[in-house]
C-alpha cells in the first residue's frame, strides 16, 4: 500500500461520511485506520519515507478536522430547518 493510496482511501471514507450524513465518529474511524496503515509503513522506513509519512499524517489529521466541522455545520443546518 502506498502513501498516496492511504490518503486517497481516507479521503474517500471521509467524503462518504460527510455526504451520507455520517457522524464525526465515522471520520475518526477512517482517520484511525489510515494512521494505523501509516504506522505499518513506518517500520524500516528511511528518513525520506519517514518525512513523507509524517506529512501524510498531518494531511489526514487536517482533513479529518475539516470533515468533522462540515458534519457539525450540516447537522446544525438540518436541526434549524426542522424547527
The fraction of residues assigned to DSSP E strands is under 5%
What integer is the average pLDDT? 93
SS field, number of helical segments: 3
- The secondary structure category is mainly alpha
The backbone outline, from C-alpha atoms, is elongated
- Which segments are poorly predicted (pLDDT under 50) over 5 or more consecutive residues? none
Cα distance spanning the termini: 47 Å
> Helix-strand pattern, N to C?
HHH
Counted beta strands = 0
Give a quick account of the main beta sheet: strands, pairing sense, barrel closure.
none
Helix content: over 70%
List keywords for this structure.
0% strand, 83 residues, 3 helices, mainly alpha
Spell out the blueprint of helices and strands.
Elements: H1 3-19, H2 24-42, H3 47-81
Helix pairs in contact: 1-2, 1-3, 2-3
